[in-house]
Design a protein that fits this description.
The chain contains ten helices and 15 strands. It is α/β, with parallel strands linked by helices.
């Protein structure tokens, strides 16, 4: 099979031919129809993931069809439409798994990091990593929903926000453009925040009721003028941007971080205590959460804005993503 492989840290993707993998006892082989390129793929390309073994085929936004199943696999047959996201499997026996909190598994594997992922014509994954893809979603549209989609959808549905509450989405990019759509379909009063006026038209088209230009306005004051946010979904990987909106939270408001930044935030205890505010982070989710995301997306007609490239152009496609030139997700199609 054809695959695009990282052979050394910091190197380019190399076109290689690899043996088509055989599924083990509880594994499923997936014929890849589409694989999204995610910012987290930099963990493989730059060799940043702890204990990463190279060479490796990246890719954790995989949409395709079951091609073969292991002897102990139940419920999947060749031809079934399936996807594999960031959560690539769990151990079933650690404390988190015993509580059913599979995304927090102490021994969790990551598709495209722990084993070869979707920058290829085929991959093999544990059956517990699979989510079913509704017929209403094209493979290229489904692929980014298995990372950017589940991250924003799952974060929003696990807050205390109720229909009609003010929910702000900071960042109108790969995560944010989906977060706005989910927030609108969930019945929230949606406020989009971004730097500059150029994203306003798109934000409103995606479903935002209001737009705040964080260059022209103090974002916290602007949110308070609207009544204060019950939830702020921070999709921009910027500690400075996150810090600037904390005072925009209303009573019992929650700042939910899904845009990953290594920089520390600067927040005082008094900013949180007096209005019972909180700051939390949210990972993506397990395969069940992925399937919920896909089902809701099909039901509510939510799709990502994507650019597609053939598998062999992975280097060009990755560059579009990593430089923020793409609008908004990049998908490889073997």
């Amino acid at each position: 099979m054809k695959a695009m492989q990282i052979q050394e840290a910091g190197g380019d993707f190399q076109a290689v031919e690899l043996p088509i993998p055989e599924p083990g006892l509880n594994e499923v082989r997936v014929a890849v129809e589409a694989c999204g390129i995610c910012h987290s793929d930099a963990f493989v390309k730059e060799g940043l993931w702890p204990e990463l073994e190279l060479p490796r085929v990246p890719g954790h936004e995989v949409a395709g069809r079951v091609d073969a199943v292991g002897d102990a696999v139940v419920g999947y047959e060749p031809g079934d439409r399936v996807g594999v996201g960031w959560h690539g499997g769990h151990c079933f026996h650690c404390e988190a798994c015993r509580d059913g909190d599979f995304i927090a598994c102490e021994n969790a594997t990551v598709c495209g990091i722990s084993y070869d992922g979707g920058y290829a014509e085929y991959l093999v994954a544990p059956q517990e990593a699979l989510a079913r893809i509704p017929d209403a979603l094209d493979a290229a549209d489904a692929a980014p929903l298995l990372c950017a989609g589940i991250t924003t959808y799952n974060a929003l549905r696990n807050t205390g926000a109720q229909p009609g509450d003010l929910v702000a989405v900071e960042g109108v990019g790969g995560l944010g453009h989906l977060g706005i759509q989910y927030a609108r379909r969930m019945g929230f009063h949606v406020v989009a925040l971004s730097r500059g006026p150029d994203k306003e038209e798109l934000a409103r088209e995606l479903g935002a009721h209001d737009y705040i230009d964080t260059r022209a306005q103090n974002p916290a004051e602007a949110l308070q003028a609207l009544g204060g946010a019950r939830v702020i979904l921070e999709t921009a990987p910027s500690a400075e941007a996150a810090t600037a909106v904390v005072d925009g939270l209303g009573r019992s408001g929650e700042l939910v971080l899904v845009g990953a930044s290594q920089e520390p935030m600067q927040v005082s205890a008094m900013q949180l205590i007096m209005a019972r505010r909180s700051i939390s982070g949210w990972p993506s989710g397990d395969a069940s959460d992925s399937q919920d995301t896909l089902d809701f997306s099909a039901l509510a007609d939510i799709t990502p804005r994507i650019e597609t490239y053939p598998l062999e152009e992975a280097n060009e496609a990755y560059e579009r993503m990593i430089t923020n030139a793409a609008r908004f997700r990049v998908v490889l199609e073997p």
